[in-house]
Design a protein that fits this description.
39% of the residues lie in helices and 22% in strands. α1 crosses α6. It is globular.
């Protein structure tokens, strides 16, 4: 599954690998990768692969799930489709409460004690998804864990999730993507060690030289 999703993301250019000309993230970090999983919604075959994968991850890792909650906004569509496959209720969580109406942050039914799984499209540093999980907990829900389409596998994210007692399971990941990308000519196999060095410490830009930038 991880290899299939990685190949899908590369094929539709939802993921760009550009070690020779790094992207600059909003944080200022130079990165060899940029991920836009929203593009998976526009390709019917890839969307089908992704949503079936997310549903299967929920079914396998969180069999007690009673409701699927998407992150706003990128996780909403994926949560809705996965929940439909699983025949489960669905809702989503805003980054912050509305400043009008009922001032909801959580949209959809969220009862105290309800066992929920959060759907996110991308895990980088995990800050936003942790905030979503904490909002659900504050409302009384039991957060079983997180499923996502893709994770960079950064230590900062793993540490942050562990600190909050959360587990993420992804349909694919950075390491798998690099392997598939090298096999299919998107990058050279010799670049993989440098690209893994970026994952291990994004603040250390020494990987850029060894990646051939």
């Amino acid at each position: 599954m991880k290899r299939k999703i990685a190949a899908d993301l590369l094929k539709i250019k939802a993921v760009f690998l550009r070690p020779e000309n790094p992207f600059v993230w909003a944080s200022g970090i130079k990165a060899p990768i940029y991920c836009d999983n929203r593009l998976t919604l526009s390709d019917v075959a890839v969307r089908d692969d992704v949503e079936k994968s997310l549903a299967e991850l929920i079914r396998t890792h969180y069999p007690d799930c009673e409701s699927v909650m998407g992150t706003s906004t990128a996780g909403i569509a994926h949560a809705a489709i996965a929940a439909s496959i699983l025949k489960l209720p669905m809702g989503y969580v805003r980054a912050s409460a509305k400043d009008h109406g009922r001032t909801n942050q959580i949209e959809g039914r969220c009862e105290p004690g309800m066992k929920v799984v959060v759907v996110e499209d991308l895990i980088s540093t995990a800050g936003s998804v942790v905030d979503v999980c904490e909002a659900l907990r504050a409302a009384g829900a039991e957060v079983l864990g997180i499923v996502s389409i893709f994770t960079y596998g950064m230590k900062k994210a793993d540490d942050r999730l562990a600190e909050h007692g959360l587990v993420n399971v992804s349909a694919s990941d950075y390491d798998t993507l690099l392997t598939v990308a090298a096999e299919n000519g998107y990058i050279s196999p010799r670049q993989i060690p440098a690209l893994l060095a970026f994952r291990d410490d994004p603040s250390d830009e020494s990987w850029i030289v060894s990646a051939g930038a």
